[in-house]
Amino acid sequence: MNPWLCRLLLVIVLTVFTSEARAEWVTCQGRQLAVDQPALTGFGSEVYFPSANTLVFRDAATREWGTCVPVGFGWTIDGFWSFHPPDAEAEKGVILLKMSAGGDFRYFEINSGRELYFGYTEDGKLDLQDNPGLVPGTPVPVLQDWVGGASLITQPEYHFITDQETWSAVWTRHQGKNISFPWIDFQMHNALAIFAGEQINSLGIKIKEIRDTGEAWEVYFYSVVTKPAGPNASVRPYGFFMIPQTKKKIILKESVQSLTGGPPQWRVVKEFLPAGT
Questions:
Q1: CA-based max dimension of the chain
Q2: What is residue 18's predicted lDDT score, i.e. its pLDDT?
Q3: Taken in order 72, 77, 82, 83, is the CA torsion positive or negative?
Q4: Domains and their CATH numbers in the chain
Q5: Is 85 within 8 Å of 128 (Cβ atoms)?
Q6: Does the predicted TM-score (pTM) go above 0.85?
Q7: Residue 179: C-alpha distances to residues 170, 176, 223, 247, 259 (Å)
Q8: Quick one: pLDDT at residue 216?
Q9: pLDDT of amino acid 53
Q10: In sequence order, what DSSP letters do the residues of the chain get, joined into one string?
Q11: Which one of 80, 99, 137, 225 is CB 3.0 to 4.6 Å from 106, fit for a cystine?
Q12: What is the predicted pLDDT for the residue at 105?
């Protein structure tokens, strides 16, 4: 083997080994996560972001681990953000961790790790509200997704796909003929295809979460809106999602959140009845 190649491989192995040796392990909702360097430090807290989908808070003084919060993929940490409540007796602002995904934002209290939302008081002043909580049910994973903003489909459409023929037909309408598309084993999986039609400044469709409520799978999705550097761009956002196979009812719920950073709001846009009904 080329000696230079051997040296390169040795450097790579040593780098990986050193990184793993430095990492600490923390348990988050039954999962072991390796954490290395904090993504953000300040105000007596350290914030870690392992796998770019989970927040882990740590007390910088005591070195004790605090709350861990799975946030899903597509979110980035913007930094610390101070908000002064309208209460006249409040002397200090509340320090929040701010995250963004396109034009959407989320805020977490750094001391407790709890997610907070913006809302209005009875006299119309902007204030923080507690997280309304997770929707009921157990989480269902999205196994893989294909997301973008350039579909040939011009009107909103929603598809629950259970066979290769339908999968091929939807992809052909989406991107045209003679275009390769991903392969899915429909003996073990199903797929969802969501098309938003004509929109402005969207990077694509993302699923926030899927919850199994027992009788149905509820799918919560949103359009990832961004602020362009130049003029507004007309796009046709879409999302394809591979999910575990199910025979249950599928309920698609779209985000209609009216206040940036406000509590989640959802509307049902499509229901797929169980097979055989």
A1: 75
A2: 44
A3: negative
A4: 25-130 (2.40.128), 138-272 (no CATH)
A5: yes
A6: no
A7: 12, 6, 25, 30, 39
A8: 94
A9: 79
A10: --HHHHHHHHHHHHHHHHHHHH-EEEEETTEEEEE-S-SEEETTEEEE-GGGTEEEEEETTT--EEEEEE--TT-EEEEEEEE--S-TT--SPEEEEEEEETTEEEEEETTT--EEEEEE-TTS-EEEEE---PPSSEEE---EEEEESB-S--S-EEEEE-SHHHHHHHHHHHH-TT-------TTTEEEEEEE--SEESEEEEEEEEEEE-SSEEEEEEEEEE---SSS--EEB-EEEEEEE---SEEEEEEE---STT----EEEEEEEPPTT-
A11: 99
A12: 82
Tokens of 6: 């051997």
Radius of gyration for the alpha carbons in the chain, expressed in angstroms and rounded: 22
Residue among 34, 79, 74, 76 at smallest CA distance from 56: 34
Half-sphere exposure at residue 134, Cβ-oriented, CA atoms within 13 angstroms: 16
| Consecutive 10-residue averages of pLDDT for the chain (277 residues) | 55 45 74 86 91 86 88 83 72 82 80 81 75 71 92 96 95 89 94 95 88 93 78 89 95 82 81 77
Amino acid type, 65 = W
CA distances from 158 to 64, 184, 191, 219, 241 (A): 46, 18, 11, 12, 12
